[in-house]
Known about the structure:
Elements: E1 4-7, H1 17-29, H2 37-46, H3 51-58, H4 64-79, H5 89-97, E2 101-105, H6 110-119, E3 128-130, H7 143-152, E4 159-163, H8 166-174, E5 178-181, E6 197-198
Parallel strand pairs: 1-2, 1-4, 2-3, 4-5, 5-6
Helix pairs in contact: 1-2, 1-4, 4-6
Amino acid sequence: xxxxxxxxxxxxxxxxxxxxxxxxxxxxxxxxxxxxxxxxxxxxxxxxxxxxxxxxxxxxxxxxxxxxxxxxxxxxxxxxxxxxxxxxxxxxxxxxxxxxxxxxxxxxxxxxxxxxxxxxxxxxxxxxxxxxxxxxxxxxxxxxxxxxxxxxxxxxxxxxxxxxxxxxxxxxxxxxxxxxxxxxxxxxxxxxxxxxxxxxxxxxxxx
Length: 207
């Protein structure tokens, strides 16, 4: 019996992937490191990579503290210009909230997650919120989903995960959970063969 629904955030609830790409590209450019949008979506969105891995592969001198500081400033500035919601996302969250425990597991920084949830008035619907600071390993590792289930006090078999990217589906299945993929224009070419179901929009979710 399904008792809990676990949401991803970026690319599923809010259309922030282009903003994140723009943020990382700008922050890297400030240190004379060139990154294309395609590279961002491949390394960060699809594979679940991070800045340390990206820089290590290039074996260059890099100021990570400066990067994190500038990334935060750039991204929050972009969010202040308006938060773009995925169609039907707020409505689906409110609908599922009536029947299930809800959690959110995001690879984003806690400040970014809080900013989006509070600004959108959606925070009250999630009993548990897990961000990048809450785990040692991010998706495709299942740690975030396992932590969410533990905090919700439900078993993994009682959870359904809603994800837009391959790394999230891999993580959900590794946690022993049901996984529904809802690809967007940036993740439509990801491998969703491990998903229990692939839908075209949140509106189609019917448990």
